[in-house]
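Many introductory courses stop at the sequence. We go one step further.
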Amino acid sequence: MKKKLPRHATLWGRVSILVCIAQCVACVPLGVVPESDLRKADGLVDVGTRFLREGRLTEARKAFELASELAPVAGAVDGLGCVALLEGQYESAEGYFTEAYEMDRSYDEALVNLGLLKELQGEPSEAKAMYLKYLEKHPSSGRVRNNLAALEYDGGRRRMDTVTALEKAIVLSNQAVIRDNLVALREK
């Protein structure tokens, strides 16, 4: 004998069942994102990044939001975190960076941005952990080696150790900011 399913005699019972069904339907993947939308989203991330570099935060946010609407792109979410960070909204920034990394565990730039955030929040050990985690996968990143060296120098690391770390960073990535840091350190 078949079991009878319970009947919901109240309107609320029927409504709650419909809500559960609607939520379950919303959870079903609707399909793969079209390649054209992924390309557009990536292009919008590039546009947002240019706006960030120019200090045009409102335009950057819009570009990253549009990219997120088109496709689930970690770079767009990370970009929203960068905007929040620059606006001093640290809690939001952390949420975005974490979400970007959880969306795509190969999107390691979110780790660097989390490291910068932790530095700004006065949590050097957390920042160092983020930088080291990044360097495990990308040991040739001069930029992150520079960040780590500056963090460790501020934390009391010996001057010569920091000079050596910056010299290695310059070999990997001869960027002006690294050269400037080395010059400033040598002048001290």
